[in-house]
Design a protein that fits this description.
Length: about 230
């Protein structure tokens, strides 16, 4: 993290007007944009994007430094299995096909995928690069941060993924959509691949929120990735 920019963020935090006693929160994220255009007309892709654009997600955090991020319930007609299929495709292709939990005290994180697989990892801080670029989101001054990491694609090639986040120092909570966190302020906007998440409702609460972590047999991220690449 750039030292000059980090010092600036700390300065903003110290002189923020927020009442820091409110350490419990609920944030609603909606899909702002999906910048994906198929090479040729494809009805399935168009329907999938439409489903993704209607999805909403909730981020919860409490004073114990626990947080969870999960999709809000999707209401679909019980007799329309095709509708459910498109929603599932939208989660996998464009939004988020897992619920994410983190315990900052124990430095543990959990992924509960929609197929029932539970992953447990030791939490590692992300190497964010905070820039001087600013913009206002819903009245909050936000700074732009970039995170890049390498991953192994399905073709077994190593590629680089870039995540762009806009965080608000005046909301000094290190949380955000999906598994992106660790910035000195709440992430109000996040671009991941083609999809941009936007915080549309922010509730800071005095009453403690109870966050229940998933239970059951878990595997590591490495084990899960091997299963995905092998097609199970």
């Amino acid at each position: 993290m750039n030292r000059i920019n980090f010092t600036l963020i700390i300065f903003l935090l110290l002189f923020s007007n927020i009442i820091n006693s409110q350490k419990n929160g609920k944030i609603i994220y909606e899909i702002k944009t999906i910048d994906f255009v198929p090479k040729e007309k494809n009805n399935e892709i168009e329907i999938t994007i439409e489903k993704a654009m209607n999805q909403k997600f909730s981020l919860f955090f409490n004073k114990n430094k626990f947080s969870s991020f999960k999709i809000n319930e999707i209401i679909t007609p019980e007799d329309n299995s095709l509708d459910k299929l498109y929603n599932k495709m939208a989660l996998t292709r464009f939004t988020c096909n897992y619920s994410y939990y983190i315990d900052f005290n124990q430095k543990k994180e959990y992924y509960l995928y929609n197929d029932g697989v539970l992953i447990s990892n030791n939490y590692k801080e992300k190497d964010w690069s905070i820039t001087k670029e600013m913009k206002t989101i819903d009245g909050y001054l936000c700074y732009k941060a970039i995170y890049k990491y390498e991953y192994i694609a399905r073709d077994s090639q190593t590629k680089t993924k870039t995540i762009t986040a806009w965080f608000a120092p005046s909301l000094p909570f290190p949380y955000g959509p999906k598994n992106y966190n660790g910035l000195p302020g709440l992430i109000l906007e996040l671009q991941d691949w083609n999809t941009t998440f936007l915080a549309t409702k922010i509730e800071l609460l005095d009453d403690e929120l109870i966050i229940d972590f998933p239970k059951g047999k878990s595997i590591t991220q490495e084990e899960y990735e091997k299963k995905v690449l092998s097609g199970y």
